[in-house]
Amino acid sequence: MSIDRTAPGVDGLPDVVDAMREWQDDAAPFQPHPGDLGWLWRFGAEATAAAVRTWSRAGRILAAGMLDGSAMLRLAVAPDVQGDEELARALVEDLTRPERGVLAAGKANVEAPAGALIRDLLGARGWGVDEPWQPLRYDLAEPVPDPGVRVEAIGPDRVHLRTAVQRAAFDNSTFSDERWRAMAAGPAYADARCLVAFDERGDAVAAVTVWSAGPGRPGLLEPMGVHREHRGRGYGRAISVAAAGALREFGASSALVCTPSSNVGGVATYRSAGFRPLTEVRDRCRLA
Hints:
The chain is α+β, with helices and mostly antiparallel strands and 288 residues long. The protein is 32% helix and 29% strand. The chain contains nine helices and 13 strands. The chain has helices at residues 9-22, 34-40, 45-50, 85-96, 117-124, 159-169, 177-184, 235-250, 264-272; strands at 4-6, 52-57, 60-67, 72-77, 108-111, 128-139, 150-154, 192-198, 204-211, 218-226, 254-260, 276-277, 281-286. Helix 4 packs across helix 5 (117-124). The protein is globular and about 60 Å long.
């Protein structure tokens, strides 16, 4: 049977979220999570749909890609078909031919699970590897300790606290109350929660959004940030511990996070919170 590539549209996005949930497995290589799609949803359903491509066979979604601009695709693949030659060759053709409407000509990056056949086939086409990223995992089999600071779940009535910390944590962030509401309206947020940490004066100092893929599956932290005026005081560790605890309440098997390996401070923060590093991952990249 042939592989069908589609842009699923807004109506098809819930099926993509469901498929990506099913693909999350602690025993499988690290790959994009439904929470990544949920975070993209802050730009609205139409923009999210425009950035998504799926590859299916006989009506089953086998792979889903999220475009970040015209030169970066984050690709998730069902674990049981990561070595499927028909799928891998179809993906390579679509990703290397600009007229297929996935990646533009010139420099491009593809994030794909370690060990997936598509990585080997892109390498055979001359694609190299980019800078390493460090995934980390927190095993949630045992109770999570208290974070040591006040942490609260944030809903629509106090969304301004969540968005303000985001803007103060990341340069050039455009996260706003309106974008939070767009994100929260997406199907992935049905299994998500925003947390904010407060200092002893009651100031919001750190924030995180956690995304569950369902009971018994890994959850995701995306994103986590500390207010630039409150760094170096352990709030990153505290909010990361709280995030792991929230995912355990959702029934997640583990908590995952990924950051550039060059972000030495970020990696150290997650490790201090109890996250353990997994094998580094690198995008496949085409230089021209």
